[in-house]
Design goal:
Strand order of the largest sheet: 2-4-3
Strand content: 15-25%
Number of strands: 7
Shape: globular
Structural class: alpha+beta
Bound molecules: iron/sulfur cluster
Oligomer: single chain
Number of domains: 1
Distance between the termini: 37 Å
Radius of gyration: 15 Å
Length: 129
């Protein structure tokens, strides 16, 4: 973890303790696209994202990824301000095929204090659609 930066980590340090009757619905505030830290790309996501961008897998890897902090797999690059490389304004450029790390937060992984930094709204599971 880098000194001076808040780093909320990734599914690698998942702590999930949610009410099973509630699902948290993302409000697209994009805070989680701006946190420092890895945005993990799994092996089976590379081809899907590269295809969506209309480029080959090798080009996708060289242009948009780096090694994860633990050097065990790939992460999306970040901009100098720590935003994810795929964030354009308030939209994700690869929303339709975004990595499972992004799709899974906060319902499949999260961390202590996540409610303080995420605007997702709790909805009763049967109402969530
Ligand atoms: S921080 Fe929460 S509400 Fe904001 S974009 Fe991420 S998941 Fe959605
Ligand atoms: S891939 Fe998209 S959803 Fe995931 S952190 Fe980057 S901009 Fe956000």
């Amino acid at each position: 973890m880098s000194a001076g930066n808040v780093n909320y980590g990734s599914p690698g340090n998942r702590i999930v303790d949610l009410d099973k009757d509630v699902v948290y619905v993302c409000q697209r505030c994009t805070a989680c696209c701006r946190w420092p830290g890895d945005v993990r790309i799994e092996e089976d996501e590379i081809g899907r994202i590269a295809g969506f961008l209309g480029i080959g897998e090798d080009e996708f890897i060289s242009r948009y990824t780096r090694l994860r902090t633990n050097r065990q797999g790939l992460s999306l690059l970040e901009k100098e301000n720590h935003e994810c490389i795929m964030l354009e304004g308030n939209s994700c450029r690869i929303h339709e095929v975004k990595p499972s790390q992004c799709a899974g937060f906060p319902n499949k992984w999260n961390f202590p204090g996540w409610r303080d930094v995420c605007e997702a709204v709790p909805v009763k599971r049967e109402d969530a659609g």
